[in-house]
Amino acid sequence: MITLIGALCYAELGTTYPHAGGEYHFLRKAYGREVGFLFAWGRMTVMQSGSIAAVAFVYGDYASYVVPAGPFGPGIHAALAVIGLSALQLIGTQVGSRAQLALTSATVLVVLIVAVIGLTTSLQPLSNSPSALSTSMGAPGLAMVFVLLTYGGWSEAAYLSGEVRHTKHDIPRALLLGTMAVTALYLLSNLAYLMAFGLEGLRHSKIIAADLVAMAAGAESATAVAAIICITSLSTLNATILTGARSIYALGRSYPAFAVLGRSAAGGRAPRNAVLLQAGIATVLVAFGALSRDGFQSLIEYTAPVFWAFMLLVGLSLFIFRWSDPNRVRPFRVPLYPVTPLIFCATSGYLLYASLIYTGAGALLGVVILLAGIPIFHFGLRHRPVKRSTRSGGELP
């Protein structure tokens, strides 16, 4: 429900203010150049690059099981995935979109197959001993950070609003139908796991899909499960890279000090330098994850506070636009306004709190890197060579 409410809010913003910069454009328009810059800076150095590294790290762990590459195999596979999919984006948006369609179709098929196995298989719970439940007030919030990470990706549609032909119909349809489809798949798969293992079995499994297939088809199926997770990881990774460079591109188009990031390739359809920089930062973060005790968790903690802080600001921007721009034509309006946006903002604020209080040092590192963008912004203003046109404010055409 939280994801669906967020998608409704983004559907209104994306159809009312379509722009290739997505959230960057919303924040810059609502709060000014400094907040817009901080978002683009945070997305470039923390949020999107960190998410890419986290998913690549998951892919690397399982790919190294399928194709061993020595003690540094996970990092090698992760880096190769980032570099290979980034190169695919340089060919052009159309090629990248076709690859995403193929990978997403494979992911849906895999989820359905695993769900069918679970619904038709009766297994003994992995453990019948009662589980100790945490009494910490922050435990639900920290859990929700990871749960909503699983549902993540719906907000990325905002970055394609400037490239979609029929924004009025396509953006809401993509957000709403996509969110409902993902929700249905997840509920089906979780029902299958519950029926197969029971509640206690679920509590004691850390790799539930692998446990399910291995127990149903034997230990030799572990390689097939690893390959399945590789496919789903590549699907997510490709989608994240596809949309991730758009805000970096918008940053280069808006600020002369970063103009090199606003250059395109492949007939102007791919943000070339933005893709290259994003791939470089993500590769460095993959190395950071490889050196951590739990690389994936460290990378999520690194991104979570910055992500939910800006998600809160985007939610609040909807109220700002309704008040400051009341006569604007809104092809789609979020239902039950203002209740639904308030729920989304309250949830984002709670998850921001939980990700700061109940996570490790990686969260603090992400916040520090975000705040480093403040002096960089002011330095860039003092050293811009040519003043842009006041009509467009230097924004992406």
Give the total of beta strands.
0
Cα radius of gyration in angstroms = 21 Å
Intertermini distance:
35 Å
Note the beta-strand portion. Answer: under 5%
Globally, the shape reads globular
Mean pLDDT: 80
List the total number of helices.
14
Task: Describe the protein's architecture and organization.
The structure is a single chain. This protein has helices at residues 2-16, 23-31, 33-66, 73-91, 93-119, 139-150, 167-203, 208-217, 222-254, 272-291, 295-324, 339-357, 361-371, 373-382. By secondary structure, the chain is an all-alpha fold. The chain starts with a helix and ends in a 15-residue tail after the last helix.
Task: Give a summary of the structure in a few sentences.
The chain has 397 residues and is an all-alpha fold.
What are the key terms here?
mainly alpha; 397 residues
Question: Topology of this protein?
Answer:
Blueprint: H1 2-16, H2 23-31, H3 33-66, H4 73-91, H5 93-119, H6 139-150, H7 167-203, H8 208-217, H9 222-254, H10 272-291, H11 295-324, H12 339-357, H13 361-371, H14 373-382
Helix pairs in contact: 1-7, 1-12, 2-3, 2-11, 3-4, 3-9, 3-10, 3-11, 3-13, 4-5, 4-9, 4-10, 5-7, 5-9, 6-12, 9-10, 10-11, 11-12, 11-13
